[in-house]
Amino acid sequence: MRNSLPVAQAADLSSCQAGEVEFTIRPALPSDDERVIQIAAEGDFDNCDSVYLSFIRATGQLLCATVDETAVAFAGMVPVADIAMVTDLFVAQAARGQGVGGRLLAELLAGRTQSMTFSAQHPAAQSAYRRAGMAPRCRMLYLSGSAIGGGPKLVPGGWIHGRDELVGYFVGRGAVITPNAVVLIGATGVEVLRLDAVNAIDECQQLLRAFEAGTNVKLYVPEMHPLAAWLLAQQFVITDHDLLFTTDAVALPATLAALHPGLA
Ligand SMILES: CC(C)(COP(=O)(O)OP(=O)(O)OC[C@H]1O[C@@H](n2cnc3c(N)ncnc32)[C@H](O)[C@@H]1OP(=O)(O)O)[C@@H](O)C(=O)NCCC(=O)NCCS
Question: Whole-prediction pTM value?
Answer without folding.
Answer: 0.93
